[in-house]
Amino acid sequence: MTPKNEEQFKKIRDQRQQELRRSAIQMFSQKGFAAAKISDITSHANLSHGLFYHYFTSKEELYIEVIQEILADFIELVEEANELQKSSLGKMEWLTDATHSGSIREGVYRHILILQALYSDHLNEPVKLEIVALYKRAVDGIATIIQEGQQEGHFIEGDPEELATYHLALAHGLLLWNARTDSPIELSTEKVLRQLKRSGNGGMCQ
Amino acid sequence: MTPKNEEQFKKIRDQRQQELRRSAIQMFSQKGFAAAKISDITSHANLSHGLFYHYFTSKEELYIEVIQEILADFIELVEEANELQKSSLGKMEWLTDATHSGSIREGVYRHILILQALYSDHLNEPVKLEIVALYKRAVDGIATIIQEGQQEGHFIEGDPEELATYHLALAHGLLLWNARTDSPIELSTEKVLRQLKRSGNGGMCQ
DNA sequence: GTCTATACGACGATAGAC
DNA sequence: GTCTATCGTCGTATAGAC
């Protein structure tokens, strides 16, 4: 009960929580919310299933918590890109790089979870609306960069938000593709941005 | 037991099977395999849950059957595109149109199922390998069209299979996006093909 | 803080009546 | 061909020992 011990305990608690959360992200991502069992999550972290409830109140609560955390990180990333001292093209390149890197697999798990949360049915309406709102903030942030790029003349014309949607569709589609194969598969930022750039297809204009 | 009656029975049987299969596709797509309950499938078709097992031997069997059927249809579509008397660009336009139309929602459900099958974990290895092989046939078919288009000078340079992957990533990403929103959202074939076409971004070359 | 044992509910699948 | 009733299993969540 000395302060010293309490700190030790807190350290262990935090570590276990993080291990379980990390494991949960992977299991949710690979199996989906319904199919990912508590025992999958705990055993992947080499802990007993009973311990799960020492750290979280329910599977669903953890799921929601994790999704929101991931989305918050993604929004932060987009905002970070917006604040860079770079051209809009440079910002998009930085953002695309950052999205597709980040210890590879880990990042893929997290993004797949975003997709699951957006496209599946097991969340109740209020939570789902909140998720969608968070996602929209990310889209808006990207749209801002694109709009800027249009003014600079680097990007093609069109509704910025729609273009942002197309960009994310491609980026997410490629993330999924990458998740499926064991081979690393090189993801070229340039190729992802190809569809945005103005007459930029390899500079093959005439 | 007269022939007449047998025909009637067969007709009913076929109809019920189709209703259940249709319902299953929607439920699997919206909820995922694990979360889609037998009772969800049957009640959505206004039938009792017991009846399910009169028509199918198990949930998993139906799931696999449905996935393979959908993939076979997709492959057929791609091959059909390949055989058209059109330019490669015309073929891609036709294919993209066909993929994104088809009673809208129905088509979306089916494509989401493809994604689920490819990216989830609940299929055993042999089945999964078969699914992947089927999908590869579709990708190859698209790559063939793209290669043709490169020779005609309509499409940008690059490995055809990789470009096909990018194309499908975008197409799938947009399908998902469309699945999420209640609003119809216009999907422009031209915009989807934008990333493939050579210096074709609105014809803004100089 | 971590574990094992157990209560309880849900769902896939079957049996049998109509 | 369709339904309701039921079994058996599995998974979430809890209780309590260490």
TrEMBL record, chains A, B:
<dbReference type="InterPro" id="IPR036271">
    <property type="entry name" value="Tet_transcr_reg_TetR-rel_C_sf"/>
</dbReference>
<dbReference type="InterPro" id="IPR009057">
    <property type="entry name" value="Homeodomain-like_sf"/>
</dbReference>
<dbReference type="InterPro" id="IPR050624">
    <property type="entry name" value="HTH-type_Tx_Regulator"/>
</dbReference>
<dbReference type="Pfam" id="PF00440">
    <property type="entry name" value="TetR_N"/>
</dbReference>
<dbReference type="InterPro" id="IPR001647">
    <property type="entry name" value="HTH_TetR"/>
</dbReference>
<keyword id="KW-0238">DNA-binding</keyword>
<protein>
    <submittedName>
        <fullName>TetR/AcrR family transcriptional regulator</fullName>
    </submittedName>
</protein>
<feature type="DNA-binding region" description="H-T-H motif">
    <location>
        <begin position="37"/>
        <end position="56"/>
    </location>
</feature>
<feature type="domain" description="HTH tetR-type">
    <location>
        <begin position="14"/>
        <end position="74"/>
    </location>
</feature>
